[in-house]
Design goal:
By secondary structure, the protein is α/β, with parallel strands linked by helices. The chain has one domain: Transcription Regulator spoIIAA. It has a six-stranded mixed sheet, with helices on both faces. α1 links the parallel β3 and β4.
């Protein structure tokens, strides 16, 4: 997938054929880096009309409680407006990150009107996110 945004700690990919955006975290990020990358990912998803999202957390480390709160209170409400059909979460190698992601997702249920699956393999997550069915037309 082409990289559409890059810092030393995160790459954002866009797959036009599968209409997906992928956040690929490359290690520990501080609050400013996390929030900037997630905000940019929202912008790119809107710009490209993404319908699938891959949260590739393989190398992501612990997300601080204040950032978990920000994700749930600020980021997820905006994310839920994108019209996503699928969210694929590639689990981190870091146990504390996995616990943090579980907490975030449990608190975000009101903002998740789409399918969510967890993966250990990024390629499988990409395939699944890109295979989101088209919405049913209202008659």
């Amino acid at each position: 997938m082409p990289i559409v945004y890059h810092t030393p700690l995160v790459q954002l990919h866009h797959d036009p054929a599968g209409a997906t955006i992928e956040t690929e975290w490359l290690g520990f990020v501080n609050s400013e880096q996390l929030r900037a990358a997630l905000t940019e990912a929202l912008r790119l998803a809107r710009q490209h009309g993404a319908k699938g999202w891959i949260a590739n957390n393989t190398l992501l480390r612990t997300i601080r409680p204040a950032d978990q709160d920000w994700i749930n209170q600020e980021w997820f409400p905006e994310f839920s407006k994108l019209g996503m059909r699928r969210l694929a979460i590639v689990e981190s190698q870091d146990a504390l990150n996995r616990m943090g992601i579980t907490t975030i997702m449990q608190r975000a249920t009101e903002h998740i009107p789409f399918d969510t699956q967890y993966f250990t393999d990024a390629a499988a997550a990409r395939r699944w996110a890109a295979s989101a069915p088209a919405p049913v037309a209202n008659r």
